Amino acid sequence: MATVLITGAAGGLGQSLQQAFRGEGYEVVATDVEGAPHVLDVTDPDACRAMARCHRPDVWINNAALLGAGEAASQSDSELERVVSVNLLGCINGTRAALDVMRKRGSGHIINIGSLASWVPVPGEAVYAATKAGILSYSLGLLAELKREGESGVAISVVCPDGMFTPMLSRALDNPHIALSFSAPHLVDTDTVSARVVGLVRRPRRVVSVPRWRGAMVRAMSAAPDHLLGLSNIFGALGRRNQEKLRSASSEPATQRHGPG
Q1: How many other CB atoms are found less than 10 A from the CB of residue 33?
Q2: Are 159 and 16 in contact (CB under 8 A)?
Q3: What is the DSSP string of the chain?
Q4: pLDDT tens digit string along 204-227?
Q5: For all residues of the chain together, what is the average pLDDT?
Q6: CA torsion sign, 156 to 25 to 15 to 178?
Q7: For 135-146, what is the mean pLDDT?
Q8: d(Cα 45, Cα 41) in Å, to the nearest integer?
Q9: pLDDT for residue 168 is more than 80
Q10: To pair with 108 at 20 to 30 A between CA atoms, which of 11, 62, 180, 221?
Q11: Based on the number of CB atoms within 10 Å of its own CB, is 238 exposed (0-12), middle (13-18) or buried (19 or more)?
Q12: Are the CB atoms for 124 and 177 separated by under 8 Å?
């Protein structure tokens, strides 16, 4: 039985990934700092290595992340360090730990969860976006090194979802800094992202966006960053409007939201 190890597995996308891979017959090693069967602090490189040596996963998914929204120039030093340590260094630590095991075996797949924010500036979430851009750059750079060294047995992929209505976002519905995360007509469902990740294991690709149309739009827009910065106010206004709709919907009684029965 193949084994998948998932970081940040206690909630949101992590829980959805667990269900998706169990449905495919995988043995799932669900890790998090709390709320998961296996305790793993991704900011500890030795802990990541020990976890990899213990379970020797066929697939390692670096999913652990913090939002850390706020004004980038005035966020506390401790908040910046926390977000960068978990999101970026945590991904690098997990990748290196998994790679140590997979290279010796000659096979494996590392999947790093990025974001559409990997491609574009995101006012209000600048530090978060910087970590996700770092994940994309690190993953592709490492993949190029492996190809250059003739090591083709280990696949590395980056999955870049649009905003997902996970607990991380739902807890911050009143936060004006995260408006751009709500700028799409609809937030992405975690099960949709999980299904894409499972499909990626079957047919590895370097970078995938969810949904594809938003990924294509964002990547095209990233070619003209000056124009993109000018559009941020428009997308921000859309996001704030969608935040308000979600706040209103969440405050309505269940019978009023869903109708009778």
Answers
A1: 15
A2: no
A3: --EEEESSTTSTHHHHHHHHHHHTT-EEEEEESSSSSEE--TT-HHHHHHHHHHH--SEEEE-------S-TTTS-HHHHHHHHIIIIIHHHHHHHHHHHHHHHHT-EEEEEE--GGGTS--TT-HHHHHHHHHHHHHHHHHHHHHHHTT--SEEEEEEEE--B--HHHHTTTT-GGGGGGG-SSSPBPHHHHHHHHHHHHHS--SEEEESHHHHHHHHHHTT-HHHHHHHHHHHHHHHHHHHHHHHHHHHS-HHHHH---
A4: 999 999 988 877 878 877 776 666
A5: 86
A6: positive
A7: 96
A8: 9
A9: no
A10: 11
A11: middle
A12: yes
For residues 62 and 94, the answer to whether their CB atoms sit within 8 Å is: yes
Evaluate whether 8 touches 21 at the Cβ level (below 8 Å).
Answer: no
What single letter denotes the amino acid at residue 25?
Answer: G
Per residue in 108-130, pLDDT (tens digit) is: 999 999 999 888 878 888 899 99
pTM for the whole structure: 0.84
| Structure tokens, 36 | 């998961």
Torsion of CA 24, 99, 189, 114, to 10 degrees: -160
